[in-house]
Design goal:
Length: about 230
């Protein structure tokens, strides 16, 4: 384990990249999830069909396959479009941006179902009561829908977030210098891959443990008074 300590700065820099990637991907997945849930609950059948295709496609294809398709295929599409229109020269997509969009796109489908189920769990009568009181749609969302949606969505959201953290390890295959990439590189250089992978295991456990503590606090905050009721 002496070699792991010598390469601690490399592991810490990789951990920082992994955390940034996870948080950025989570933000994108939440945005896509809210849009997807709204589309699935919309009156417009076209919106529901598009959202249904999105969630079915993502949940039916392995995450790594989608990531490779989005990274290499997306880059090819962008460059082909630039060559056809003459609007730009060759574009090389940054690995970090590609990782954020890939993971965010994948987990946006899971967040869609999480938020859709949470919204459906809210009694319709409360929404109708807000409308009858003259509340605007934005005010209804802020005062009625959002607090209860968060409470119902948190268990599934927690699971999605913990899986998302682990999914960040996949971006090492596209060359992003995250925790797994840096640890693999260091392990090969000193011929101690097991020691460095064990260090990666410990770091991921620490990240998920801190996340679990934070989300449990959030769950208690949004469930104040529910058990007493």
């Amino acid at each position: 384990m002496d070699s792991v300590w010598e390469y601690r700065n490399l592991l810490l820099s990789g951990t920082a990249v992994t955390i940034q990637l996870a948080l950025a991907s989570l933000t994108l997945s939440v945005i896509l999830g809210l849009i997807g849930a709204s589309a699935k609950l919309a009156v417009n059948p076209i919106s529901r069909r598009i959202a249904g295709i999105y969630t079915t496609l993502v949940r039916g294809v392995p995450d790594l396959v989608l990531m490779m398709l989005l990274f290499y295929g997306g880059q090819q599409v962008v460059n082909d479009l630039g060559a056809a229109t003459g609007w730009w020269d060759y574009v090389e997509i940054n690995q970090f941006i590609a990782g954020v969009w890939s993971i965010g796109f994948v987990f946006g489908a899971y967040m869609t179902e999480t938020f859709r189920g949470a919204i459906l769990a809210i009694p319709r009568g409360q929404i109708e009561a807000g409308i009858s009181c003259g509340m605007t749609p934005l005010l209804i969302f802020r005062r009625i829908t959002w607090p209860q949606m968060v409470r119902h969505a948190l268990p599934s959201f927690t699971n999605n977030w913990l899986v998302l953290i682990k999914a960040t390890a996949l971006v090492s295959v596209i060359g992003l210098h995250d925790l797994v990439w840096n640890a693999s590189t260091a392990g090969r250089s000193v011929r101690e891959p097991f020691s460095f992978m064990f260090a990666v295991l410990i770091i991921y456990l620490i990240l998920t443990a801190f996340s679990d503590v934070g989300l449990r606090w959030l769950d208690r905050r949004y469930n104040v008074g529910v058990d007493r009721a």
